[in-house]
Specification:
- By secondary structure, the chain is an alpha+beta fold.
- The protein is built from 5 helices and 5 strands, in the order E-E-E-E-E-H-H-H-H-H.
- It folds into 2 domains: 74 residues, no CATH class; 53 residues, Homeodomain-like (Arc Repressor Mutant, subunit A).
- The protein is elongated and about 50 Å long.
Length: 139
């Protein structure tokens, strides 16, 4: 039996029940806490303020939004990319090695990647620059 679940989002002045398979608009700067009564998988997308279209900032309170299948798949796809919160010691160790002048292939192997190409892609997703750019700029 599959049990639907929900997260409860609490801000200073509102409670929002966030059902499974829906989106939640949570404006930047809104202090909140999340209560999960049952296991619940949350995926988060963060948008820089300049990327949000005009008029969207009128929604200053959290809101539950429906997602069609395409939008849901897009969110899941975008959440696969490493985020800032996923930059762990492995990534910091990689940057240190690049700054020391190690080759991209050496660094890729040292931090557990199967290929320099896979490492390059992951580093670019995490930091927005290629390993060669990072190394040539001295970090």
């Amino acid at each position: 039996m599959i049990t639907e679940s929900a997260a409860i989002i609490e801000t200073d002045d509102v409670y929002v029940v966030h059902p499974c398979m829906h989106a939640l608009w949570l404006p930047a700067g809104v202090y909140h806490s999340i209560f999960l009564p049952r296991p619940f998988c949350l995926h988060a997308l963060y948008f820089a303020p300049r990327t949000v279209r005009a008029g969207a900032d009128t929604h200053s309170r959290p809101q539950v939004l429906g997602l069609n299948n395409l939008a849901r798949e897009l969110v899941l796809f975008l959440c696969e990319a490493p985020r800032v919160s996923q930059r762990g010691p492995r990534h910091a160790h990689a940057l240190t090695l690049l700054a020391e002048g190690k080759s991209i292939g050496e660094v890729a192997r040292a931090v557990g990647y199967d290929s320099a190409a896979a490492f390059s892609t992951a580093l670019k997703q995490c930091f927005g620059v290629s390993p060669s750019s990072y190394a040539s700029n001295g970090g």
